[in-house]
Design goal:
Elements (H helix, E strand, L loop, with lengths): L1 E4 L5 E6 L15 E9 L7 E6 L3 E6 L8 E6 L14 E6 L8 E6 L3 E6 L4 E5 L8
Antiparallel strand pairs: 1-2, 2-3, 4-5, 5-6, 6-7, 8-9, 9-10
Length: 136
């Protein structure tokens, strides 16, 4: 799967929809989107500033990265707690990572089964599968 952000902060998705990784809840799990679907709405009125795709999950910074209003949203396969919601449940639609509400997230990167964020203050947070030390 692939996601991209245009100059206006609109998020587009295409590719394999298994486990909800595209964030398009109406997409059947077995359906592959061969071209971008627009727009993928996350939070009303806020543009997306960063997006990262893992093997079967996705994360996006909604709002201006590093600002006090920026929020991290994740969706897709929940296995290994890679989404940051405190459960292994899949999320077929974008969901805000509430534990980072007080943090000013400036960047995000998804690995195969883990997620890492960097905050303005220099703090780094990682979660998900750590069998090879990928979470640090």
């Amino acid at each position: 799967h692939t996601l991209a952000v245009d100059d206006n902060g609109v998020l587009y998705a295409w590719g394999c929809g298994d486990s909800g990784r595209t964030g398009l809840s109406q997409q059947p799990a077995s359906r592959t989107l061969l071209s971008p679907v627009l727009p993928l709405c996350i939070s009303a009125g806020l543009p997306v500033s960063r997006v990262s795709c893992g093997d079967s999950h996705t994360a996006a910074i909604v709002g201006e990265a590093g600002s006090a209003t920026a929020e991290l949203w994740t969706w897709g396969r929940g296995e290994s707690y890679r989404l940051g919601h405190g459960s292994k449940e899949d999320e077929r639609r974008p969901r805000r990572v509430e534990d980072l509400d007080e943090k000013r997230v400036v960047d995000v990167s998804c690995g195969s089964s883990h997620t890492v964020v960097v905050c303005v203050e220099g703090d780094v947070y990682a979660w998900g599968q750590n069998d090879s030390g990928q979470c640090g």
